[in-house]
Amino acid sequence: MTVEATPSPAGEAAGPAELPPAGARRAPRVRAGYPRYAAGKLAGAAVSLLAVLVTSFFLFRLIPGDPVKFMTGGRPVSAQQIAAYRREFGLDLPVWRQFTDYCGKALTGDLGTSYQFHVPVLDKISEALPNTLLLTGTAFVLYTALGVFLGARSAWRHGRLGDRLSTGLALTLYSLPSFWLGLLLIIVLSVGAGPIPGLFPTGGMESGGEQGFAYVIDVVHHLVLPVVTLVAVEYGQTLLVARSALLDEMGADYLTTARAKGLRDDLVRRRHAVPNALLPTVTLIFVNLGRTVAGVILVETVFSWPGLGGLFYQALSVPDLPLVQGLFFVFAAAVIVMNTLADLLYPLLDPRVGR
User: Fold this and answer.
1) Distance from C-alpha of 297 to C-alpha of 301, rounded to nearest angstrom
2) Is the pLDDT reported for residue 159 higher than 60?
3) What count of Cα atoms within 13 Å lies in the side-chain half-sphere of residue 144?
4) Across the strands, what pairs with 156?
């Protein structure tokens, strides 16, 4: 059967090859609506950041404890000295005045001065941030790759023994408290238990005194147990989400068509099924990426890792209000920014989202 050419408005024949494919007709609508979609997401992120700024100020003022007593170190001091400390850090001002000063400075990038370290909060955050990114960034790459890979394989072989074992192990590890697993690893692999000798350091980031390549090896040696703890606890969530998303795609017609064309089963999974099941997994990956900046407070505390999580725990014990507020804002802002980036990426993965 042949298709006759139809006259175009200019009177020239136009064959079917000149007609745009069905998929091309959707792209202009997505592109036309994308600026409005992106503006809405960015506005929502800005409102969320403002809400975090307000919450961080009032929330931590509910913590019991007097920062001035900490700054005096428990020494007997006169009322005049206490008043001087309060004036120095603005604690003598009414709460509404402290709030307006805090918001005004935060909008200019000034998060205040730490009570216990007597340095700008941003300086302390900048000092600890690389250590957190090293720990949680390494763990993030490993548990994301492991979770997506095992989740895809489990879904493709769902119901079999391997799927049941993989899913059961992921659920078990995901339900374990990270601090408990970290302490268990320290007891078994650092202190040593029975015939198992102590193989790894009990905490910290370095032993001290090492330089060059020996320093790198020393840091990696200290990195093993906290990374193993994070990977063991976190990979299960990625596995379960990736598995569930791929299972939803298993009965789709396009997979049946791909198999009917003679494509290998492994090729059908990698080229067709997995890319179309990535949308919910991408959401989780970006959320976890935001949490990478925050670190894992309990794990860093258990292993005495000098990152943002350990710094946050240390600041809470005072309470060092400017440092706690600044860290809380950075943690929340990282998650909000990553979520917003995921939302902006959705229309590129699925044009229906941007409509």
Assistant:
1) 6
2) yes
3) 18
4) none
